[in-house]
Each structure stands twice: as structure tokens, then as C-alpha cells.
Specification:
152 residues; alpha/beta; Rossmann fold; 4-stranded parallel beta sheet; 42% helix; globular; binds 4-nitrophenyl phosphate
Length: 152
């Protein structure tokens, strides 16, 4: 099972999502491959935003190894499941899909957290540190359910 997490810059939300997912998968002994990408190219090659790294570090999770890259159409072939952090990014991903079947593999990550009223993971880039903790909590909820679904 190969899972791709996607946001805009690939320095805040999607590397946090990748860090949460690989951490929870490892804890549960679930073998999945994870990666993340951004629909934009502004931060290609960069490590996660220091505030994202700090928020993850507060939870005991290290994401300092991750590097930003841009999402491409080939990702639809390389991954089984593709999760967008928000509707804008989902739209921009689907625009690149080679077919309807490819496009159907991409959904909002919060589709796995139906109990949460927030359907999109808010972009924390222009806010304060607390936004990153909100993102973390949302991602734990979604990724916990996602892994339970994968195990079924
Ligand atoms: P991300 O956050 O999509 O969660 O990585 C952002 C990072 C950078 C920018 C926007 C959002 N930016 O415009 O540079």
C-alpha cells in the first residue's frame, strides 16, 4: 500500500501528515509506504517549516528528513491512495489525472474523519504556532481512521 499526502507547499501540512501516518503505521506494525508532495513548486528541496517540525517534535515525531517536491501526474500511477489537505489542492491534483480511474484515487484526507466538522486541513503557514497543533490533532484523527480502514 502506497499513500501520498498532498498540500500546497509540501512544507507544513503534508509533511506533518506523512510524519503522523508513518509514525502511527509503525506503532501498529502496518507496512505502508508514505510520501508527500505539494501542488506548488515554491519550496521544492526544502525541509519542513521549522514550526511544523517543532509541532511534531512536541509529539515525539521527527520529520527533519523530509524534503519538499512538487506533485506530478505520474503520482497517480505510483500511489494507491492520494490524500489532499484541502479542496483547492484536490482540484489541482485531479486536473492532472490521466483518467477518471486515476482521479478516483484522490480524496480529501478529512473524509476519514467524518466526526470532525472541519472538512479541510487549514493552511497554518501565515498563522501562529497554535495552528500547527490544530493541524496535528486533525491529522491524528484522520490517519488513525485511515489505518483502521487499511487493516480491514
Ligand atoms: P503547506 O503550507 O501547503 O501546508 O505546505 C504552505 C506553505 C507555503 C506556502 C503556502 C502554504 N506558500 O505560499 O509559500
Amino acid at each position: 500500500m502506497r499513500v501520498l499526502l498532498v498540500c500546497l507547499g509540501n512544507i507544513c501540512r503534508s509533511p506533518m501528515a506523512e510524519g503522523v501516518l508513518r509514525h502511527l503505521a509503525h506503532e501498529r506494525g502496518i507496512a505502508i509506504e508514505t510520501d508527500s508532495a505539494g501542488t506548488g513548486d515554491y519550496h521544492v528541496g526544502e525541509a519542513p517549516d521549522r514550526r511544523a517540525q517543532a509541532a511534531m517534535h512536541r509529539q515525539g515525531i521527527d520529520i527533519s528528513d523530509l524534503r519538499a517536491r512538487q506533485f506530478t501526474a505520474a503520482d497517480f500511477d505510483r500511489f494507491d491512495l492520494l490524500f489532499a489537505m484541502d479542496a483547492d489542492n484536490l482540484r489541482n491534483m485531479i486536473r492532472l489525472a490521466p483518467s477518471q480511474a486515476h482521479a478516483a484515487k484522490a480524496v480529501l484526507i478529512m473524509d476519514h474523519a467524518p466526526a470532525n466538522s472541519m472538512r479541510e486541513v487549514p493552511d497554518p503557514y501565515y498563522g501562529g504556532d497554535e495552528g500547527f497543533d490544530v493541524v496535528y490533532d486533525m491529522l491524528v484523527e484522520a490517519c488513525t481512521n485511515l489505518l483502521a480502514d487499511v487493516q480491514r
